[in-house]
Amino acid sequence: MVDKDVSGTEANLAQARQRSVMAHRILVKLKEMGLPENLDEELSKLCTDLGDIWSAQLVFTEKLGQFLNDENEWNAVGDCLADMKSHIEHITWHAESVIEPIESIAEYAYGISENA
Questions:
Q1: What interhelical angle do 74-97 and 40-69 show, nearest 10?
Q2: Second label for 62, Cα 20 to 30 Å away, from 12, 43, 53, 79?
Q3: Are 54 and 26 in contact (CB under 8 A)?
Q4: What's the mean pLDDT when you consider all of the chain?
Q5: pTM over 0.70
Q6: How many C-alpha atoms does 17 have within 13 Å on its Cβ side?
Q7: CB neighbours (10 Å) of residue 109?
C-alpha cells in the first residue's frame, strides 16, 4: 500500500512539474516578446489557467482511454465517468477563468501588431 501511495504522489508531483513548466514557457514567451508589466496580473492568470487546462486535458485523455479499455463492469464505468466529470469541471473552471486574460492580452497583441 505504501508503494502505491508513493508512486501516486510521485505521479502527482511529475504532473505538477509538467504543468509548471508549461505555465513558465507561456510566461517566458510573452515576456520575451515584450509584454508590459501592466499586464502581469492577466499574464499570471493566463499562464496558470492554460497550464492547468493543458495538464487536465492530458489526464482526461488518459481517463477516457481507461474507460474505453477497461473491463465491461458497470462499477468501473461509473468510476471512470465520475473521474471524467471531475476533470471536465476542472477544465471548465479554468476555461471560464482564462477568458478575461486571453482577451486582454490578445487586444494588446493586436494593438501592437497594428502599430508595427
A1: 160
A2: 43
A3: no
A4: 90
A5: yes
A6: 6
A7: 13
Q: Chain-centre distance of CA 8, in angstroms?
A: 19
Span 25-52, average pLDDT: 97
Q: How far is CA 27 from CA 3, 45, 111, in A?
A: 36, 10, 19
Say how far apart CA 23 and CA 66 lie, in whole Å: 27
pLDDT category, 1, cuts 50, 70, 90? very low
Instruction: Give the separation between CA 94 and CA 53, rounded to whole angstroms.
Output: 6
How many Å apart are CA 89 and CA 32, to the nearest integer? 33
- The structural domain count of the chain equals 1
Radius of gyration of the chain (CA): 18
State yes or no: pLDDT of 4 exceeds 80.
no
Nearest to 67 by CA among 81, 54, 53: 81
* pLDDT tens string 72-98: 899 989 999 999 999 999 999 999 999
Q: Are 62 and 4 in contact (CB under 8 A)?
A: no
